[in-house]
Structure formats: C-alpha cells, structure tokens
C-alpha cells in the first residue's frame, strides 16, 4: 500500500539526500515538497530540491514558502553546507518551482490526504503557519517526523540547541503544542556509529557507484569538513537522512518514548532548546499547569522522542535508495 508524504525543507546537502531517499522508496508517494527559509534562502533551497527531484527522475512539485522566521532574524548555514548549500557544486535545476504558496499547499494537501505523513527537515515556520491558519489539519496527519532538537544533549548551533529549532523557536513551539503527532528525531542520532566513515563513503562511490551515490557524497563535502573540524565528529553526520530513514522504516528507531516537550524561546543561553520531560515531572493538574507548560501539559504526553537507532540498518536503507 502506497504511503503518502509531504516534505517541508530548507534544502541543503543532507536535506537533499533525505529527499532522494523518500523519492527512491517504492511505496512512498511524495505529494509535494515545500521550501522554508533556513539553511539557504528559499530560492536556493528550491533549486537544490528541484535538482534532486530531477536527478531521481521524478515529477514532484516544489513550492516556495516562508522566507523568514516568524519573528526572528534569519541566520543561514553557509558555514556548514557551503555557499549554495550543496558543497559548492552549483547544481542547477531545469524545472521551475510550482505555482502556489507552501503554507496553502500544506493545508490543502493534508486536507485532501487523510493519514498523510509530514516530514520536516528545516525550521518549522511553514508548518506553524499552516496549523495556525487551519488547526483542523492536525487530525489528518498520521505521523509528523521532525528532524530537529536535541533530547537532553549538546546542541549543534549553540551549546543548548539544534539549528532547525533554534532558527525559529516560536514556530517550533507552535507545532509542538499543536497536537501534531510529532516524532522528534534529534541531530544527535546521526553521530557516533551513525556517522558515515571514510569506508562508508568509498562504498557509496566505488561499490554502489551510481549517479545518486556520487551525488549523496559529493554534495556533502562541506558538511563533512565542518563536521570534523568544528563538531569534532569522526565522519559525516546526516541528520535529515536519519530522520527520513525513521519516517520510511520506524523500526530503525530502536528506543523511543512519549514525553512533554517544550521549546525554549526566551532564554539568553537556551534559545531553541528542546526541553524533554524525561522524568515526568510536568504538573498534570490544570490548577498548577501554568507553573511550566500552559498548553502542552493538558492531556497525556504526546511527543515521541527517538533516543536510539540501529546504525547498521540506517546505512543499509541509505545504500538501498542509492541503487534504485
């Protein structure tokens, strides 16, 4: 049975690999790709997404969306992904972007496809605007897999926060409080054994040796250098593809649990921190709810936090999508 998906992304190099994975999975039908400001300006993110769609030989519309966070100044990730978001490869798309605004497309596509899966790979501005304008769409989303946050661990843009959430924390807070069935796949899950090693990247280019396997490694050359020199990781971390792997095959996440999760918007040092109530200390009675989480604490914990993945199986799924 075909599973329908919509992808919201600020397409840079790891986003592009995640898009490739979805497009190359036979039982996934990507209904639309919506672009949000983040890693790249909307126009560049759109080019990167459209080029990826073309390389996969697919026909999926790409729509432009919010060009800035809800209230914040935008902060690009050129330092991480390169000037074009694709390691300076300067890929050019032949097809134009689709007509229509991403927020309207999110609303209309979700309404028309009950049970659709939503995968977010960038700041959550488009999604926050969509659920604010049409809160009824929440009920039509079967899974909302979010590449974002850091579950009680170190951040990658500040000591406390991961980039996607930090970039527009107010939007993330709207989404986390909206009732969407969020599965939070933090950036930390792409580290350690989940990093692509030199041997893994050689396997992609020399053994698999397809246009898609070369693309996946080549476009991440800046990300690889920054991961090693700035973050101190041994290889290439691919947070968006890890999130997409879990979207495609939920069993790749080997440990998960439901929690209240709040997004810090006011802290001087903790902006964008995803505050996971791992020990269940959030007050449940409505008289005391204002102590901590005035919206989220009503009802049962509903944010699924992914804690661990099967690194071998995530890589196997990546390799499989390169071969199709």
Tell me about this structure.
Mean pLDDT is 94; it is low at 286-297. 36% of the residues lie in helices and 17% in strands. It has a single domain (3-323), classed as Ribonucleoside hydrolase-like (Inosine-uridine Nucleoside N-ribohydrolase, Chain A, Alpha-Beta Complex), CATH 3.90.245.10. It has an eight-stranded mixed beta sheet with strand order 3-2-1-4-5-6-10-7, sandwiched between helices. The chain contains twelve helices and ten strands. It has helices at 13-23, 42-55, 78-81, 102-112, 125-133, 163-167, 169-177, 198-208, 211-218, 221-231, 239-248, 311-323, and strands at 3-9, 28-35, 62-64, 116-120, 141-147, 182-185, 253-259, 261-263, 274-276, 303-309. By secondary structure, it is of the alpha/beta class. Helix 4 (102-112) crosses helix 5.
């Amino acid at each position: 049975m075909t599973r329908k998906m919509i992808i919201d992304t600020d397409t840079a190099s790891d986003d592009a690999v995640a898009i490739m994975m979805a497009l190359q999975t036979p039982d996934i039908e990507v209904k639309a790709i919506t672009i949000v400001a983040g890693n790249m300006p909307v126009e560049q993110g759109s080019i990167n997404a459209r080029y990826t769609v073309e390389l996969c030989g697919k026909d999926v519309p790409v729509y432009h969306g919010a060009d800035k966070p809800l209230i914040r100044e935008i902060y690009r990730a050129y330092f991480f992904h390169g000037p074009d978001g694709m390691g300076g490869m300067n890929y050019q798309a032949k097809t134009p972007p689709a007509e229509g605004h991403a927020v309207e497309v999110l609303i209309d596509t979700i309404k028309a496809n009950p049970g659709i899966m939503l995968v977010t790979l960038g700041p959550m501005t488009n999604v926050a605007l969509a659920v604010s304008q049409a809160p009824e769409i929440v009920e039509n989303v079967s899974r909302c897999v979010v590449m974002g946050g850091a579950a009680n661990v170190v951040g990658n843009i500040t000591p406390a926060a991961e980039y996607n959430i930090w970039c527009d924390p107010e939007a993330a807070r709207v989404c986390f409080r909206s009732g969407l069935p969020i599965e939070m796949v933090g950036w930390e899950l792409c580290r350690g054994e989940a990093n692509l090693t030199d041997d893994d990247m050689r396997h992609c280019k020399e053994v698999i040796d397809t246009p898609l396997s070369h693309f996946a490694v080549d476009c991440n050359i800046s990300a690889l250098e920054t991961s090693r020199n700035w973050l101190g990781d041994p290889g290439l971390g691919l947070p968006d593809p890890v999130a997409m792997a879990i979207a495609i095959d939920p069993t790749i996440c080997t440990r998960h649990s439901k929690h209240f999760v709040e997004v810090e918007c006011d802290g001087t040092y903790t902006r964008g921190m995803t505050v996971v109530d791992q020990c269940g200390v959030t007050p449940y009675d409505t008289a005391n709810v204002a102590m901590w989480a005035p919206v989220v604490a009503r009802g049962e914990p509903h944010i699924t936090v992914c804690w661990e993945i099967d690194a071998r199986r995530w890589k196997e799924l990546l390799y499989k999508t390169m071969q199709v």
